Amino acid sequence: MGFDQYHEPPEELSQETRTFARMITSLIEEAEAIGWYEQRISIEKNAEARAIMKNAQKEEFKHFGMDLEFLIRHKSDWRTELKSILFSKGSIVKRGEAAEKKVD
Ligand SMILES: [Fe+2]
Questions:
Q1: What gap in Å lies between CA 18 and CA 14, rounded to an integer?
Q2: How far is the CA of 36 from the centre of ligand 1 (A)?
Q3: C-alpha 48 to ligand 1 mean position (Å)
Q4: Would you tell me how many other CB atoms lie within 10 Å of the CB of residue 60?
Q5: Rounded to the nearest whole angstrom, what is the distance from the C-alpha of residue 77 to the centroid of ligand 1?
Q6: What whole-number distance in Å separates Cα of residue 86 and Cα of residue 75?
Q7: Which DSSP letter does residue 90 get?
Q8: Which residues contact residue 98 at a Cβ distance below 8 angstroms, ignoring those fewer than 6 apart?
Q9: What is the pLDDT along the chain (104 residues), one digit of tens a residue?
């Protein structure tokens, strides 16, 4: 991975922005891990191996959630939008459009 999370010279970024970038990278990695486990679980024939992978995937759900919570505690507009979209019923697209209007 190295320093790929930065798209601007790191020395010009504030500590807060560098932390934010690292947490974004962590969020991406947790999402990738969830997807990789999903694929492995879907093809694994050994039940015990599959159970271990499912257990590991649950850990990644937790990591993803903690990363996301950290990030939205530092981005109020993002938090506002997610409050309107997540854990809701009905059309996700309509909820997303309504959420966007809340921060415009
Ligand atoms: Fe993880």
A1: 6
A2: 12
A3: 21
A4: 19
A5: 26
A6: 16
A7: S
A8: 84
A9: 456 778 999 899 999 999 999 999 999 999 999 999 999 999 999 999 999 999 999 999 999 999 999 999 999 999 999 999 999 999 999 999 999 999 98
44 Cα–ligand 1 center, Å: 20
List, as own/partner pairs, every contact residues 79-87 make where C-beta atoms lie below 8 angstroms and the sequence separation is at least 24, other chains included.
none
Distance (Å) from CA 67 to ligand 1 centroid = 10
CA 61 to centroid of ligand 1, rounded, Å: 8
| Encoded amino acid at 71, one letter | L
C-alpha 49/C-alpha 42 separation (Å) is: 11
